[in-house]
Fold:
Amino acid sequence: QVKLVESGGRSVQAGASLRLSCAASGRSASSYAMGWFRQPAGKAREFVGAISWDGKSTLYADSVKGRFTISRDNAKKMVYLQMNSLKPEDTAVYYCAAGPRSGSYPHEYQYWGQGTQVTVSS
Structure:
């Protein structure tokens, strides 16, 4: 069993940077690939990015490539989403998720956090 808790979401102006954190707990938490997804109000959940269990491989959605960076610290059981050059269209609830591999579909992940709201105003 893995429990995930996101933090760091808040309201910012367009062009700002923000770092989201995801704290994982559970004996095997560090052995899971981690993904970040987001869900704008009234829309479907969408893939943001993912990182392999060892941090050696990352994958990003085209919409965030070059602006967002995922990293992890397995010793601390933490995963981060660094978001730069934020745009109003990045406004959403952001979720971290844990799964056996770093895929881009929600069904590939077994465990989910409760989400943290990011609002970007123009």
Summary: The mean pLDDT is 96.
